[in-house]
Amino acid sequence: MTKPISRKLTAPTAMSLQPRPWGFLGSFTAMASPCEILMQVSDEYVAKQMLTLAYDEARRIEQKFSRFIQGNAVWHLNHAQGESRLIDLETLHLLQFAEKCYVLSDTAFDISACPLMALWRFEGQHRIPEQAEIDDALSHVGFNRITFTNNTLTMPAGMSVDFGGIAKEYAVDRTAQLLAQRWPHAVLVNFGGDIACPVINKDGWQVGIENPHKLDNAAALLTIRQGALATSGNTRRYIEVAGKRYGHIINPKNGYPVEQAPLSVTVLAPNCVMAGMLATMSMLKGAQAEDFLQQQGVDFKVFRG
Amino acid sequence: MQLTSKQHIASALAIASCSLIGQQAYAADPQLTQDDWKVDAAIMYYGEQDRVQAAEAIGNVQKAFGDTSLLDMKIVVDSLTGASASGAVAQAESQTFTRPSGKGEYTINAGDTPLDDTFHDTRVQLSANWQEVLNQDWTTNVGVYASKEFDYLSMGVNAGLERSLNKNNTTLSLSAAFTNDIVDPVGGRPMAMSQMVFRDNYESDADYQAAFDQTRLSGDDTKQTSDIMFGVTQILNRNWLMQANYGLSSVSGYMTDPYKILSEVDLNGQTQAYRYENRPDSRLKHSVFVMTKGALDSGVVDFSYRYSTDDWDIQSHTLETHYRYNLSPTMYAQLHLRYYQQQAAEFYQPFLLSGEDLPEYASADYRIGDMTAYTVGVKFGQRLSNGHEMSYRLEYYQQNPDNNGTVLPGQLQQYDLFPSVKAIVAQVSYSF
């Protein structure tokens, strides 16, 4: 996990805005994550407006694309029972991006993999799923079985889509872009460790990268002037069965957690969606994560157990 | 996966991610149907000192159908009471006037500007507009309009086309409207420049009525208005945009105000008679409008200028600005300033001189005379926790008519023939 220098993030119930020597720090909770907006602004009203815009956009994307909200766009797709459903332009763009990632990752990144994820949920569980359960789940997975046009999506009954692997990074980039379009001030958008800095900050933002072995301690400190970073691998979620640690990155080809996956991967890229996808793809590479990232020519930090 | 080129995936992702996040701003989830409706309701009060008072209720409903269609419907109901200047001049003695209907009279005290207090009416206006986004570059709209008051019916249609260019940084628009009005004044249309008759000068009601009817034309009359407008909106940079419009308006038909009169005075300024005004039956008007609007750190500001000229010789200049300051993310205050200057119509004259030939066209209506006017207003808006918005507006308006160079004979020099009109506008609006 990554965090800016303000280390402790309690989860506020709504927005909060605090003055800092360099400007204002706004915070709120969205997408089950602590969110922060760091603004190099002297005027409190401007800071409030910026924070409100960020909050509204984060909530909008969460409301629309969360798999857990009944009646939203994703819920309608996942309850279509094989029928076609209308999709709007934004959903189409996310689907097109997901398809691109599915192809680029050689089918390892798959937004239809939720039945597998559900089997490997890491909440107080001390057994691994049966092979029969995995086979059953695999029969409901496969992005290539989803068809979509410019305004409809059709998938076999029992299948579902989950934008969770993209939505947070997407929300960071969208929010960063909206803020940069509206105000000239340097700003850092941080939604649960996924970060974008759309406007150059001459002083640079200090961003800490957590050491998964010593949570809440920054293992590396980066200075970011502009760009984005994202982290894959939530180190607080794994299970150990018979001495073997199973991470939360599941290979949708065989239904098992990726072996020798790093504990966490942090990638720097021009935008957060790109950084997040490179981090996720490298996790799916398991032991070859570092090689993969080196080949991509991006800056990164990998922690292994 | 075998990589054929080293950075194949990173560069493909760079392109895909940029196309994903580089899209236009998205509206709120269209599946939340309550967001498709937008309703504004307002009540407004307009009050001139000692003159017209108006109360107005405004209802506006917008309904979006998907991302491309918008229906906008509006209803305005207003009720007017009070007095308005008849066009006659003040005198050293009290003056008595026949009401426009011919039924009854009213008297104005010595030294006072004659105001006709017959004036009260209720007006209902309805309009509907359909906007359709045809594709990324073209937007079109069509609308209908109707307005009814006791002696007036107005019906119109309009249509427009918008074209976006230059990555939506430039918008060109072309719109046209046609309106047909039917005027059916109380008591009939006065004969042009005919003299007002009085009951006291006749033996019987029948004789009086016959004489009154001689000054009147029966039936209604019509007026047609055709408007065409061309506009350009240009986004200058992240914070500023500019708009320019050119409009051409052609009106033909009955444009005389059937309730306005002129005093006919002698060389001492003493009134000898009252005559009903008459205006030309065609008018061609050009107007040019430029505006710039900017987003500030904590608000919005705009400045605009309008120039208007027509073949009645009325020319006007309007300077206007709004400055909105955001007090907090949910509250704003707005200042409104407007300055207006007008040059009189060629046939405007504050009175007629007896003994001179009657002109074909004449009007003493101060609204088409020389004048300056200004508005100072404040507005305060608040977004409520349920997302609804409440706003309050208060404005002061003052019209200062000027003498267009007419020499004032005798007693007229003692009176203010060009009194100011002072008005207050108050409005409360609720949007949900």
From TrEMBL, chain A:
InterPro entries the UniProt entry points to: ApbE, ApbE-like_sf
MF term (GO), any: transferase activity
Organism domain of life: Bacteria
Keyword Lipid metabolism: no
Cofactor: Mg(2+)
UniProt KW Flavoprotein keyword: yes
Protein keywords: FAD, Flavoprotein, Magnesium, Metal-binding, Transferase
Reaction(s) catalysed by this chain's protein: L-threonyl-[protein] + FAD = FMN-L-threonyl-[protein] + AMP + H(+)
Enzyme class, UniProt record, top EC level: transferase
EC id: 2.7.1.180
Family: Belongs to the ApbE family.
Protein name listed in UniProt: FAD:protein FMN transferase
UniProt organism field: Shewanella inventionis
From TrEMBL, chain B:
Superkingdom as given in the UniProt entry: Bacteria
Presence of keyword Signal: yes
InterPro entries attached to this UniProt entry: DUF3570 (IPR021953)
Keywords assigned: Signal
Residues in the signal sequence: 1-27
Name of the protein: DUF3570 domain-containing protein
